[in-house]
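Hi X.,

You mentioned you wanted examples for the new student's onboarding notes, showing what a folding record looks like when two proteins sit in one file. Here is a clean example. The first protein comes first, with its sequence line followed by its structure tokens.
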Amino acid sequence: MGAVPADRVGWPYLPAPRVATLEGMDVQAIGEPDAAEALLRTLLAVGPAALIGLQRELSGQQAGLRTHALLALGACLFTLAGLHLGGTEAGRVAGQVATGVGFIGAGTIIRDSLRVKGLTTAASLWVTAAIGVAAAVGAYSALAATVAVTLLVLLIVPPIERQILPHRKQQRVTVSLEPGTSPASAARSIAAILPDFQVIRVRSTSAGGQALTGEARLQRGVGPVEVLADIQALRGIRDVDLTI
């Protein structure tokens, strides 16, 4: 029998694994930066993250400017620490950042009956962590492109989405009830017209009755005028206000 080829090992002669090397790579570019470069990378992580956080805060989200800025700062510092350790530690640390930020993102997601809120903010936090990692390793082109596209998605896409998919927009419905009408009964009647209707506030009125405010999405093919007329026709309803 002839000798077993060197590129075959064990049974059933699988190819020997190839070991990755740093040959041809710019080691200096991914090495530990000096103090001035580290400061620059930190600022480049925090600045864009703060812009994204400001947009989320202006949109009424709980995770705003400070949360996004601190998250990017932490991701950047973790990655810089991995670069300081050298070897494969930087990649491992970056991977752990991507895993750990999931716990923070999960805290911004709220499930309310049939609706889930906070997914966009959770995604923006995840992108912010990636920005921190990119800044730490000096991937400035990728960082700039990511920030630009992220702000484009957050600022430009929502108005377009509302025009293309109007039925996905949350509508606020405020209903004044006749004295003696139960808010729970009225809410069930409204839910028959707007299936995902959820009450967010109940208050007393000066007329001796009660008013309830809720949110819902219009069903596809159903206009606000029809919904308003249907709710107004319900028993015990005095007045209806539908905010579009």
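Then the second protein repeats the pattern, sequence line and then tokens:
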Amino acid sequence: MSTPASEEPASTGAKVYCIGLSRTGTTSICQALEVLGYRTLHFSMELFVQPELISPELHYEPMAPLGASWRWERQNVVNIIRARVDPDIFDKYDAMGDVPIPLFYRELDRKFPGSKFIHTVRDEARWLKSMKWMYEEGSVLWKHGVLDDELKYQTYGTMTYDPDLMLKAYRAHNAEVTEYFKDRPQDLLHFDLSSAPPNYEQLCLFLGKPLPTTPFPVSNESRTASWIAKLVHRVGTLPFYGTVARSVLSLIRMR
């Protein structure tokens, strides 16, 4: 998901990156950065499958254990996305957030010296509850496919909701971010949603931007997917049935 960039290229110098994991307010942060004038990219599957754009040392390697038919489907999707990757993506955006950006913050820091990083966290119990929604409801509503599952696996160690594995990944990421920036407090803004929601006062002070007159964006989708959408999504996870399942869902929506 991204906000369309204008034809005028953004600056290629220091950037702003939101490196909080999924369901920690990253959408709201990205919307706020747009208000502040940053051309912002929220969620980039392109950078996940072609991380060489970030650093020549990075390479996409599938890790999720899948059967032969789904390995073929996964590689097919990767090839399609790679064919449409914009090699000038970093010229067109000033800010980025959400996965896979948290996987690459060290490399991005080296690629764009002087950049600012925003680290969002929340209460662990609330985060797990929100992640359960993402895995069980959001994946249906957002039509997650085999490559989305690969991204989940590489980020959280599981393609299905597993609170133990996910909490382990969550704690490790937050600890690593804290350690990495421990001597550079001027480059990291820490937002803990458990104590207070993100706000323009802290964000603008951190980025040296004037305060806007509009309220801080709030985005916290938690809709429930319909039973028919869940059924079609489940069928779509079976080899060779994905296209049929999506067609059935489209026909039902047309009625």
